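Session log. Operator J.P. requested a structure for one protein chain; no other inputs attached. Running the standard single-chain path with token output.
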Amino acid sequence: MEFATFADRVAAIDAESADLEIVAHVRDLFEDAGDDLPVVARFVQGRVFPAWDSTTLDIGPNTCYEAIARAAGTNVAADDVEERLAERGEIGDVAASYDFGGQQGLGAFTGGGGDSTGSGDDLTVREVDDTLTELAAAEGAGSQDRKVDLLFGLFNRCSSSEARYLARLVLSEMRIGVGEGTVRDAIAEAFEVPEDRVERALQVSNDYGQVAQVARDEGVSGLDGIELELGRPVQAMLAQAGTVTDALEEWDEAGVEWKYDGARIQLHHDPGGQTRVFSRNMEEVTDALPEVVEFAAETLDEPVILDGEVVAIDEDGSPLPFQEVLKRFRRKHDVAKAREDVSVRPVFFDCLHAGGEDLLEVPLTSRHERLESVLAAGPDRDQDPAEVDGLSLLWLTDDPGEIEAIDADALAAGHEGIMLKNPDSAYSPGRRGKNWRKRKPDVDTLDCVVTGAEWGEGRRATFLGTFELSVRDGDELETVGKVATGITDEKLEELTELLDPHIAAEEGQNVELEPAVVFEVGYEEIQASPTYSSGYALRFPRFVGVRYDKDPEEADTLERLRNLQ
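Structure written below.
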């Protein structure tokens, strides 16, 4: 498929507001995609790689601006692109406003075919995908220049419409109203397969391109044949807030577990092959957590996929706060030194796959029994579950008093509280349903996206010190306040290092940040306020920590803010 054709079809989707019509457009696009269907199914969502793949383009706004400027002409600089963005407000509109083609440079001869004038063969979807894949693989000395060259080569061959959606794709800002549910429905309609079979295949594979192609080429039997795969992470099942009363009213009895103050992990272990560890967002964190790899090698004797948490512990094995886990969780360098400073241990509460068998559709109680058996591998398989290393215990009860006692024990042990689970529930990747409910002490906090900051003064002049907070409202971010309280100088240094790569613009002491980092922020109350674009303000906001386990798309919403007021 020519990229111009893709861009035109996406423009039609972009102009549509009705959900059913959007699905129909995406359905038609899939029907016409031919061999490019897997790529098209990702691109229309703004994805370059499958959802399970943690590979990123690693392209910041400035890199994109430079490539656009070079393709636009010798009299255009990256600063001009940024200035036009400030006027127009959207990078796709900015890219479409330039007349590309005819600019010479390394990128005009590589990564996209065609000649230096951009007059070669029309750009195709496959060429865009191949070039962006090559771009993502660039690393080491000169890699940044190579990225700019490759991206320039693409823009240099683009029409206005193509440039609009290439820029959005590169910066993960497609925003045409096509979400995962839209793609699921479009696959089902395009290839006449049941929606629930598509849903199951997507849950298992986490690859919309693969599922679209299998649905078209193999139908229902092919979709049913897609299984979990060791080394390919799936989305974590999620919980919503709930009460003991609600749980016992809806279920005959509740499964009760301790809720650990750790970071979610998914362990993929093959005794004869690799052991890999993934975060809640499916980012690989294997190298940062050697203790988990060692635990798997010492404990597990069959291929498994386990869901659990990694918890920081002190010398006595007692749990440490969540912030201590984060010192280890994304560490890429000096892991051995970090391990000396902060020890971690894994605790598992679910088993998704064991011994070649997928267990997603098996009831929770059966999955937990399988979990016990794989963690108690060896001659002493009949040991007390409480003595099985790495196992999160599951109590089944319909007695509110017993649940309160379990909750009290969890808090006394230094954990967050308890989880309530439907004993008969299947494991639903990515779903936040009523089958898992988190119950913990009342805490007034919100997860907010950091969209701006201010440089400090005096001894803090080299640190970002006041942070603008925003919540999600559809595809937009609306401000709710600023936070500067509860942050030490040491933490400010860490936050400045974390946020510096995401600086989009500066004016005096004020800094504009691309949405990339989520803060957990405490507050006393929420007030109506004309000061911030959300219409609300957090009263006495206090920095609690960085939510490294959350993307901006998972931050709290304006709707939740209204409900909390």
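Operator note: The chain has 21 helices and 19 strands.
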